[in-house]
Structures are given as structure tokens and as C-alpha cells.
């Protein structure tokens, strides 16, 4: 057996996963914030409650929210959710049926033109955010190797 192999294995089991997880977590937060900021620019200006309801969270979104994007890693326990809407952005139609205003703005209805703000931003930023996460993970691993 090579000298120091046991210590190296312990290092890899303990330090590497924590370092990589922290780097991934930070990059996921930055990416989610970037997406949310761009979505806020796309929301119609007269939709103040909808604008205020845009956000991201670890775990489950608020009650009544429309989930647009979700990144999860079950083996690491990381799950970030980007959402729009909440219970205050629910609207009722002429027949008394409740709808999420975020869905109406995003997709429109037969009487109302769509104002997409969620999926266009999500699609345009998805690759950049994934790249950001990968770069941060690789950078964390390289820092461990160099340190």
C-alpha cells in the first residue's frame, strides 16, 4: 500500500464533498438570483404584486406559487426552486374560478394577450447558470488540489 493513501481517502471523503457542495450551493444561489432579477425586468410594470412575488428558495415554494425552474441533486440534498406568484396574486375569473396571475401573464387567455416573463428568461439563462455551477465546482476542486 502506498504511504499516505489512507489519509488521502479520508480527506477525499470528508473535505471534498463539503467544499464542492458549498461551491455548488453558492453558485446555485447566484444563478437563481440572476434569473429572478431578469424576470423582474420582464414583468409588466402594472403588476406590482406579481413583481414582488418573484423569488427563489431552498426547498418548497410558497403556497400558490407557479414553479418555473427547479434544480435538485438528491445525493447532495440541494434543491433550489425559482417561483412566481403566491396567495396574494391569485385572481378570480367571471365564473368564480381562481387562477394564478403569473400563469395568466405568462401564457395569456383567449381574452388576454400573453406577457411571457418566466420561461423566456429561464431558457435564456439556463445554460449560463449551469456553466457557472460547473465552473465553481471545478474551481473548488482545483483550489483543494493546489492548496
Largest sheet: 3 strands, antiparallel
Poorly predicted runs: none
Class from helix and strand fractions: alpha+beta
Number of helical elements? 4
Q: Report the oligomer.
A: single chain
- The tally of beta strands, per DSSP, is 5
Q: From the alpha-carbon coordinates, what is the Rg to the nearest angstrom?
A: 20 Å
Choose one word for the global shape: elongated
Widest sheet, order of strands:
1-3-2
Order of helices and strands: HHEEEEEHH
β-strand amount = 15-25%
Residues in helix, %: 40-55%
Note the topology.
Elements: H1 5-42, H2 48-53, E1 55-58, E2 66-73, E3 78-84, E4 90-92, E5 98-100, H3 101-107, H4 119-146
Antiparallel strand pairs: 1-3, 2-3, 4-5
Structure in words:
With 147 residues, the protein is of the alpha+beta class. The chain has four helices and five strands; from the N terminus they run ααβββββαα. It has helices at 5-42, 48-53, 101-107, 119-146; strands at residues 55-58, 66-73, 78-84, 90-92, 98-100. The two termini are 25 Å apart. The relative contact order is 0.18. The model has no long low-confidence stretch (mean pLDDT 84).
Summarize the structure.
This protein has helices spanning about 5-40, 50-55, 100-105, 120-145; strands spanning about 55-60, 65-75, 80-85, 90, 100.
